[in-house]
Design goal:
single chain, 13 helices
């Protein structure tokens, strides 16, 4: 579907009461073009009746300053400043439940559009993306370096301080309990399961070739450097193992 109809595109939307410096239009256009260029965009955005069904059934809209209808309207009218503004905070309120997609009479997927906007925010290194992802750095390190998203030793008062007094319920003798788990876990609390060296290197290669690591470098350069060192060492170990097999 063509996205070039002048009847619905807002060429300029200003904010006369804001003290924030204006963002260069070239930058706004680049951000929108990155969103629009994604192959999923035309499948997720088909038009808008402005009926509000998506917002009425959205769990996040009940608790946050977030409206799926607003996201669709901003993208449908190509409101560049509004899109940029929404990417600073609002898009991070979406729970990605896709209730909106199931209800929309036009077959839109506001949740899918939010995902595209989040990915673009990461690509452009927006501070909102850095702020949201910063608390997950330990999980990302665990995932990329070991192939495990969570391990038993991460479930402790230090790792989940915001759980309050109920954290005591999981502050258990993990080393003892771990012995009841089958052998592939190696009876360790440092990983959730065993990922062999070959699989670990293959996973790293996939993340490298698909641009995941490039995005990580944009968001958290220190974490990127740590992971790069770990994976370089694993690649060397794998090459040594291959040489031994020969």
């Amino acid at each position: 579907m063509s996205q070039s109809s002048a009847s619905r595109i807002q060429e300029y939307i200003g904010d006369p009461v804001s003290d924030a410096p204006p963002v260069e239009r070239d930058q706004l256009e680049e951000i929108f073009q990155d969103i629009q260029a994604d192959l999923r965009f035309d499948h997720e955005l088909n038009g808008c009746l402005n009926c509000g069904i998506c917002t009425a059934t959205c769990p996040a809209a009940h608790y946050y300053d977030f409206s799926p209808r607003e996201i669709v309207q901003l993208l449908w009218t190509e409101n560049l400043e509004g899109i940029y503004d929404a990417m600073q905070e609002k898009i991070w309120s979406c729970a990605q439940c896709y209730t909106c997609a199931a209800r929309c009479p036009f077959g839109n997927s506001p949740g899918g559009l939010v995902m595209l906007m989040r990915e673009t925010a990461i690509k452009h290194g927006m501070e909102s993306a850095k702020s949201v992802l910063r608390p997950f750095s330990r999980v990302m390190l665990k995932l990329i370096s070991t192939g495990n998203q969570l391990s038993p030793d991460m479930i402790n008062p230090e790792g989940f301080a915001d759980w309050g007094p109920h954290i005591s319920k999981v502050d258990a003798p993990l080393e003892t309990l771990r012995k009841a788990i089958p052998m592939p876990t190696l009876h360790t609390t440092k990983t959730a399961w065993e990922v062999n060296l070959k699989t670990s290197v293959e996973l790293y290669t996939i993340w490298e070739e698909t641009g995941v690591l490039d995005s990580l470098e944009t968001i958290d350069e220190n974490l990127f450097d740590v992971i790069l060192d770990i994976m370089d060492e694993k690649r060397d170990d794998y090459e040594d193992w291959m040489d031994e097999q020969d």
